[in-house]
């Protein structure tokens, strides 16, 4: 923590801040500049509270230096966390493709979709049984019945299941049926729910809130990991901006930025990230090129009949074409070799 | 709903859309423009789904016309909803002031604050017992013990209590102690929680999510009202923008905009809306001038020791000065008479 | 400037940064924390470039401490700058009202509007002769002819004239006719234009760019003042956000924030800041309550025939009512006395 | 244009709107819905002004249907515009790489960079002679001298030159030295400048403003094309959002969105779009994968000494590695064949 004093802070102001720091188990380190004084806080910092220091006379601003998250940071754990489901690995270089409808609508619909997903070569099946809808009058999902249909789809195809959980009370039920529990964007800061999924031993797919900073996103992951569950897959799904031609703005900058700072895998949802069927394919390719550990794609046997998200859902043919292109990309990347060492040395 | 066809939509494209509308219990109304065709949907519209129509060939975009909310709209109920607590009225022209600390920290702290709030002439006491903190390592509130301290503050001062509830399971407990249940910004789209507070018969203070549109805000209120509880107080608390000098951007445009479109009262939280102690007073005055039905202000006997939000909390003296100014403003407004009828006629 | 080193920065990394600082005429002040090292830069700082230091190995981030602006800051000049036009004063407590049409459309239109503006008690007349329109096919203003009509309006009413200038080449021409030159939001970072108006000796009304931070806004004012012209009136006119119910989000937080940090006056434009006629009155009142030094309001004799901005323009009756309310507010404020000294002492 | 009447609009309100439409050379098409009436405008629409209709009693909102741009739209010109410079083609499937320093700093610096750019296989050299800096105290570029150094770099390497022009008056001078004239983000709505570059016969690289919508971006291109110059290369360079870990948010959604709606080529600037050296490579790959027609990358022989943008500039080695990876990607894409026809039929 660095404390910037105002230009006309008195020496009494400075010594009061220094005293407060000393009283809270840390050491002040004072730099008298030509214009103003800056005080660094050295030692254990959690007792020295930024908001308190900010209220002292003569303090202009307080700049945090330490990152607020710990267990999710790469400083804490250097190697990538790889989330494995019986051979399918998130965070192990090869992208994982999750696909399926926004909502589970019927047994037939989800079984038919599961076959499409499997035949196209994708790895996991997604589908919502509990749906967070912005209108109370919209289809709210089939609930437990939807979970049973998903279970059946897994039995028929062998595909693992990703499905959303909306509240802490439902976690045991959903965990009984799901292989990966999804926390939706609207619940990214529903801390009671985060704690609840932090106490189970199944992977959690955590979607970024629609106006969450990277720090807030990682802090929400920290809630889960601090309860004991480190099987977390982050998911970028677009942020809210002023842009009018796509439902959200897919923020691919966050993918390498998260990888620098955290050991957790991160995937991308181009369906929500664009909200437009015609943008899903190009943005899927961009997400893979930027280094995402996987994709989450909405596909439906008959998008024009889907009970939710029809306009950002691929039909089977479009999905198959996309998977063809994805597989070509993955294969071509495997053959890529960066410039060799000599060149780097002489560069 | 208005469906805009592409410039080169065929007549088959047009008739397919028209047919779909007819099959779903509504009537198409086709306008052949010089450039493109537009199809209006007349009759019951909820069966005609925007997302489905958007997937038809030849459809460029689908524009919703009806508002998605009903019970909260002024079209449904013309007169203002007045939320009353034994004589204190939200939505009845005279602003209501709610004040108190971010968190209940101890019995002494909340009792001391309650006296300050009462003596300064504010109307309700706020204080968090369950706190949604972005870090799992931050103070999470005193929980049930905090509720008991709030109860004691009410007994001593007679002030009604506003406190936050974080999840559906806690609603009965919090409702036992609180007079008004607060839904925080992070939970504005926690629909399970909204439904839960919709089923009690105590007022709900619903804070706007930090990137919620007005429509989403009102849809969240619709969740509550559709469960039977119409005692809703909306609260603007700042939105997230690129701005760097205040924690959030207080959006006062929404106050008169909500009043045009809805019958619900709306108050303003200048503490979160600015995040800076020095901006609370001017923005409080602006909120009253724009027509807010009340204010929600953070005050603490010793902000420099507060366990949360210290940098956006007034001390007792600052709060008393603000209340003095607020009361002057309210009184001066009561004496205001708009230009008289004659002038309007001749204008 | 404070340089934060990474957790695993080597002592060589640290000494290289220190050396760079020394070589550029400043002194490094090194704090070895438990986790990481922080280096303060003491002395003349403009030679030590933030972007360069950021490229050194082991540097995590560089935090600027000094404000990038000087002449516009309150640290440089403690007292308010008051911009005067023969008795009309911006920045001298009493708000100044500027009103008029978006565009000068005809001699009759501007003369008629000038009478309305004058009769309602407003202080300056605005009107665009050169219009920056987002479409090349929209009305672009009457140009020099428009300036002449404005001049005639001044002759007839005695009102001073505010009008926009779009490019450096036009500055002498516009300055010949205008009393205050307006720089529009789209040109806030048109530095050639800023320099040009910095060289004249007439007041400049500088509108905030639609996504400008406060720092950028003040830096643009710094461009003008650094050329010699300190007669600058800042103008908040709404920022671009995700909000859908108003054209822009009027950011009133910036008014007291600017006043803290700068000596320049700042006014508010509720017409552009809302984009909706029904929001102009409440937001005008809010702007005055927050402490704005004035308002810029669009008024037209017949908004339904205006060639631009019709939907955010008041008609004469609405404007007169607003002025009546504004005058009541100003008078009531003049009678306000804050709590007296004794109470503050005992608080 | 579609006019939505309020629920309680009277038949007089409706007939007044209809009459206005008729008087302005178009035809009203009235749909009486169950809830409200909607009026379509058929025929030539530019005479019927949205803002005027919005001021009529009983009008709730006016929804534009036609796109405001014409000459840049794919409806106007179906085939891609290919901007050619002696064999280098923007918009012809193969991406074009433009690279160079932010600013031209000296003859040696630009000649050295030009060699690096050429040897790495990039196609054009960029470098700023006139620099728009947010501080008046920052390096403002070498001006005409910088243009001469760029000319020398072209003579030595054969690389074409891209450089920025800041105001209309400078256009002839810059056009004398540059092969492509760049309009920077801050000047995207400097209409006088747009008109000036619309009158020359050299390609224009138009950067998106930092909070420009796609419509505004294309309207700015429309300004250029409407003056006669259709050699326009659009450039996405990141938008301003709340995000804190990158200088801007690179919006790759706009690339395929623009290609749907316009025939103009669009390239991507990952240097400004991220503002971080470590994000340039991954976002460059993403931009190519999403279908960009080229990249604009900052490279400098010694970023740690660059006079501007040092922290988003690659050094020669990093740039060479990136070019190696780009070339691998381009080659692998050339060998890609989508799924064949049979599969599509059976899909």
What does this structure look like?
Four copies of one chain form a homotetramer. The relative contact order of chain A is 0.11. Chain A is 36% helix and 18% strand. By secondary structure, chain A is an alpha/beta fold. Chain A has two domains: 2-63, Phospho-2-dehydro-3-deoxyheptonate aldolase, domain 1 (Alpha-Beta Plaits, 2-Layer Sandwich), CATH 3.30.70; 83-334, TIM Barrel (Alpha-Beta Barrel). The first copy, chain A, contains twelve helices and 14 strands. At the A-D interface, α8, α10 and α11 of A face α8, α10 and α11 of D.
Structural class by SSE content of chain A: alpha/beta
- The tally of structural domains of chain A comes to 2
Please, what is the CATH homologous superfamily of the largest domain in chain A? Aldolase class I
Number of helices, counting only DSSP H or I runs of 4 residues or more of chain A: 12
Content of β-strand of chain A:
15-25%
Report how far the terminal alpha carbons of chain A are from each other.
Answer: 38 Å
What share of residues of chain A is helical? Answer: 25-40%
Report the order of strands and helices of chain A: EHEEHEEEEHEHEHEHEHEHEHHEHH
What is the highest CATH level, the class of the largest domain in chain A?
Alpha Beta
Topology overview:
Four copies of one chain form a homotetramer.
Chain A: E1 2-5, H1 11-23, E2 26-32, E3 37-43, H2 50-53, E4 59-63, E5 83-85, E6 88-90, E7 96-100, H3 107-119, E8 124-126, H4 144-157, E9 160-164, H5 171-177, E10 180-183, H6 191-198, E11 204-207, H7 214-226, E12 232-236, H8 254-261, E13 266-268, H9 270-274, H10 277-290, E14 294-298, H11 316-334, H12 341-346
Parallel strand pairs in A: 7-8, 7-14, 8-9, 9-10, 10-11, 11-12, 12-13
Antiparallel strand pairs in A: 1-3, 1-4, 2-3, 5-6
Helix pairs in contact in A: 3-4, 6-7, 10-11
């Amino acid at each position: 923590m660095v404390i910037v004093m105002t230009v006309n802070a008195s020496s009494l102001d400075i010594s009061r801040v220094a005293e407060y720091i000393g009283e809270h188990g840390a050491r002040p380190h004072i730099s008298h500049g030509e214009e103003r004084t800056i005080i660094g806080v050295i030692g254990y910092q959690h007792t020295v509270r930024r908001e308190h220091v900010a209220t002292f006379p003569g303090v202009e601003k307080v700049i945090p230096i330490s990152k607020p998250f710990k267990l999710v940071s790469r400083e804490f754990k250097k190697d990538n966390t790889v989330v494995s489901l019986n051979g399918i690995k998130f965070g192990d270089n090869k992208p994982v493709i999750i696909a399926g409808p926004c909502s589970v609508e019927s047994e037939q619909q989800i079984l038919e979709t599961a076959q499409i997903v499997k035949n196209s070569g994708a790895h996991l099946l997604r589908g919502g049984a509990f749906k967070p809808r912005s209108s109370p009058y919209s289809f709210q999902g089939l609930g437990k019945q939807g979970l049973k249909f998903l279970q059946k789809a897994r039995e028929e195809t062998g595909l693992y299941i990703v499905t959303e959980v909306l509240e802490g009370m439902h976690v045991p039920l959903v965990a009984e049926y799901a292989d990966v529990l999804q926390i939706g964007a609207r619940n990214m800061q529903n801390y009671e729910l985060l704690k609840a999924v932090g106490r189970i031993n199944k992977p959690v797919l955590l979607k970024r809130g629609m106006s969450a900073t990277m720090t807030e996103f990682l802090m929400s992951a920290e809630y889960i990991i601090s309860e004991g569950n480190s099987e977390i897959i982050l998911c970028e799904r677009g942020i809210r901006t002023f842009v009018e031609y796509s439902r959200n703005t897919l923020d691919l900058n966050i993918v390498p930025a998260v990888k620098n700072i955290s050991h957790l895998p991160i995937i991308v949802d181009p369906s929500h990230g664009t909200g437009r069927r015609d943008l899903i394919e190009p943005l899927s390719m961009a997400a893979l090129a930027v280094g995402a550990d996987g994709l989450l794609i909405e596909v439906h046997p008959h998008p024009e009949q889907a009970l939710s998200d029809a306009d950002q859902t691929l039909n089977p043919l479009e999905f198959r074409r996309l998977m063809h292109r994805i597989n070509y990309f993955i294969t071509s990347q495997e053959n890529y070799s960066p410039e060799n060492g000599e060149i780097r040395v002489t560069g």
